[in-house]
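Final report, closing paragraph on structural work. Over the funding period we assembled a curated collection of sequence-structure pairs, and we close with a single example.
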Amino acid sequence: MNEAVFSQIAMMVLLTALIGWMGFIVWDLAKKSQAGKFGTIALFTVLGAGVFGFIVKTVLVEVIQI
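Its predicted structure, as stored:
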C-alpha cells in the first residue's frame, strides 16, 4: 500500500468519524438545552446541511473529473 492509497483511506475513515462525532455533539446540545422534538429536528436539519453540502461537493468534483 503506497502513501496515496493510505491517505485516501485514512481521510475517508477519519472524516466519517468526525461527521459522527459532530452528530453526537448536536444530539447532546439538543438534549442539554431541552430543545424538544421540533428543536432537535431543526438543529439536525440546519447543521446537517453543511455536511450534506460537503458530500455533494465531493461527489460533484469526482463526477466532473471523470
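Residues 3-65 form one domain. The longest helix spans residues 3-32. We thank the funder for supporting this effort.
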